[in-house]
């Protein structure tokens, strides 16, 4: 039985007391008696202490395999409070599940872009999950990328993490990369 957990968190504190940012992704894959329980969880919370913006992006993907049958749920919620009337926010999520001859192709995509019209902040959060089932072999990739550019030349921050788990002939090869 295999128990695998990959988690990465990033916190960026600005000493001016204006910004608190956390990016967290957790991937847990439980194998129990040949049944697969997979959960991909990503959350992004950006708190501006000046009372100007409160933004939360939440995405959850859960895929349950029970008795050779596939149970899939995609859940996403977004809450955005506009207090200054200055924020433009777009949230896009798409889920595509193709069943072809008993082979499963699944893609979960969540993209969050927050543009501040004062030209100070450009933030993009990207979560992509793709699970390909080919001839009973499982290829799974979990990727999160966070880039925060401040045009005043003060801060350049990039957080990226990728998780790839290859199942070949019942053998488990795992690569975890977070930088």
List the helices and strands and how they pair.
Layout: E1 3-13, E2 19-32, E3 35-48, E4 53-66, E5 69-82, E6 87-100, E7 103-116, E8 121-134, E9 137-150, E10 156-168, E11 171-178
Antiparallel strand pairs: 1-2, 2-3, 3-4, 4-5, 6-7, 7-8, 8-9, 9-10, 10-11
Give a brief outline of the structure.
By secondary structure, the chain is mainly beta. It is about 0% helix and about 80% strand.
How would you describe this structure to a colleague?
By secondary structure, this protein is mainly β. It contains no helices and 11 strands. The strands form 2 sheets. It has a 6-stranded antiparallel beta sheet, with no helix packed on it. Strands 1-2-3-4-5 form a 5-stranded antiparallel beta sheet, with no helix packed on it.
- Calculate the mean pLDDT score and round it: 39
Radius of gyration: 19 Å
Derived from helix and strand composition plus strand pairing, the structural class reads mainly beta
Query: How would you characterize the largest beta sheet?
Result: 6 strands, antiparallel
**Strand order of the main beta sheet, please?**
6-7-8-9-10-11
Estimate nothing, just give the exact number of structural domains: 1
Distance between the termini: 29 Å
What overall geometry do the principal axes of the alpha carbons give? elongated
